[in-house]
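[09:14] KT: can someone run the structure on this one? pasting the chain below
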Amino acid sequence: MTHQFPSGRALGAFMLTSTLLLGVGGAASASPPSPTSTADAPMHRDSLVAIALRFRGVVDTAAFQCGTRYANIGTSKASVTASDFRFYVHDVRLVTKQGDTVRVALSPESPWQDRDVALLDFENGTASCANGTPETRDAVVVMAPPNDYRGVAFTLGVPFARNHEDLASAPPPLSLSQLFWAWQSGHKFLRVDLRATAADSAPTPWVIHLGSTGCTKATPTATGPASCAHPNRATVSLPGFDPAKDVVIADLAALLSRADVRRNQPATAAGCMSADADRDCGAIFSSLGLPHPAGTGNDSPRFFRIGQRAPVSVGASR
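[09:31] RB: done, structure tokens below
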């Protein structure tokens, strides 16, 4: 079942600034679980504020847009057109100016986030993104104690406890069939679909579907897997991030910088489907900070980085 998001791209009145008092606006009046902190000061729900952590999907210096062709991508300097760009995050933490880490609570706001996981969505269902949805989402709303925060961390993916639920009964944001593999494998943590072109050839499909692999049941009759050999959840840490001024950049050009999107390992799916034996995943995993036998090194450009909230250019990159 495909979950179609309702109309209305605005995040709500309380999202007009990065922080607003709890109780202002519909979503902020909910009662999420209290966050935990390494600090000694006690925290109470009535003292929390809503903080919008902004994300921006880009290809190098250009804003991501469906149907736009981006040049000089990967090791073969291909031109690519993307048809999907979505991912899940959870376990969000903020770091205070004093260095204390605060594990914050997500503010439930259907269909984009519940208490456990949030969806970021940069495609809009138009042009090359016909398999997507018309609504987009560029923020994760958390509830945290008022403070001067200068760092953020989160996990790319879906928590194990939620990753293997039955899709037919899963609530948003985990109800999208386009972001789900076979039931035992669970959700696609990151989905990027693209086609690479060159002057002398037809477009070549190349996709990135990140998710847990090697998932096994404890017994043949178990209703779900007990563990996964390769969880493939990436931990992201961005010191110096200021929620009031900064944005988390998700850069497809950096993600693909050491991949050759004009080639594919024989006898494997196009691009990277998270298989440990698929060499096409090496560069992608390294950009995400994940281990892989074909990894391209710790110095690989990272998918996530800090940027300022000033708008980026729109159109073909470089």
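[09:33] KT: thanks! The longest strand covers residues 78-96.
[09:34] RB: yep, looked fine to me
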